Amino acid sequence: MSEAFEAQYLNLRATGARGWGDAQFGRRQAAWASSLTTLRSAALLPLPPSQVLELGCGNGAVSELLAAQGYAVEGVDISTAAIDWAQDRFRNLGLTGVFRQGDVRDMSDLQGDRYELVIDGNCLHCLIGDDRRRCLAEVRRLLTVGGAFIVSSMCGEPRSEAARAMFDGLSRCLLDLDDGRPTRTLASIDGLIGELHQAGFQVIWQHIAQNPWWDHLTAVTRVA
Length: 224
Prior knowledge:
Elements: H1 2-14, H2 25-41, E1 51-55, H3 61-67, E2 72-77, H4 80-93, E3 97-101, E4 115-120, H5 130-142, E5 143-155, H6 161-166, E6 167-168, E7 173-175, E8 182-185, H7 189-198, E9 201-210, E10 215-223
Parallel strand pairs: 1-2, 1-4, 2-3, 4-5
Antiparallel strand pairs: 5-10, 6-7, 7-8, 9-10
Helix pairs in contact: 1-4
């Protein structure tokens, strides 16, 4: 799957897109800005200049929002093209951030007990099967005592005809219609919350947005 993400980011940048999702980029970034404002107002986020790590950072769209507020941001993404793009965007915006190519299932190059905030930049639902457990275990290792983990994940039941055509109810995955390969995990809401609990996280705040395709969960968690 890493090759697919690399090709997608190369194509997006070459065609002048603003970021992942292209036409949906502005809507997604605005939704993130709104969520972060809500969470800061509710005192659910650490204060700047706390150390933040974004998983699946792409071209740094979410990290940008936090860096502009004075957070010390880092990002990791499987795609080298995405990391290059994030570095260039931050340089052009005059922001400071550290971005590295890496695998969220094994971030052993990063120091444990380092980050006050880890953000799932719409990354968790891109992981399939045991890869999800491995990623969550890494998040626990990296978080400081009392640190927060924000989950942003598609979930629920497929609503649109196109989504239902791709959905395999047994594995709870969306499949590539050409080769049957699983591309996204579409966990049930209860299943996703249970998965977080099993990984050792306590959900202290959550919001479920309903979309035409499926639901989307934003949750703030802490190590139980």
